[in-house]
Amino acid sequence: MPNETDFLLPNQLYGRSTISGSARAKDADRPVVPAESICSMVLQILVPFLLAGLGTVSAGILLDVVQNWDVFQEITEIFILVPAVLGMKGNLEMTLASRLSTAVNAGKMDSAREKWMLIVGNLALKQLQATVLGLLASLMATVLGWMAEGKMPFNHVALLCSTSVCTAFVASLLQGIIIVAVITGSKRMGINPDNVATPMAASFGDLITLALLACCGQWFYSFTDLYPYVLYLVDMLLLCLIPLWVVIASKHPASHILLRTGWEPIITAMVISSIGGLILDKSVSDPNLAGIIVYAPVINGIGGNLVSIQSSRISTNLHLNFSPGEVPEDRKSCLPFVSFVMAGANHRSAQILLLLVIPGQLIFLLTIHLMKGGRTLPSPLLTVAFLSASLIQVFTLLCIADCMVHCLWRRHKDPDSYSIPYLTALGDLLGTALLSLAFLMLWCVGDSGSV
Question: DSSP alpha helices (H): ranges in 322-414?
Answer without folding.
Answer: 338-341, 347-355, 357-371, 380-410
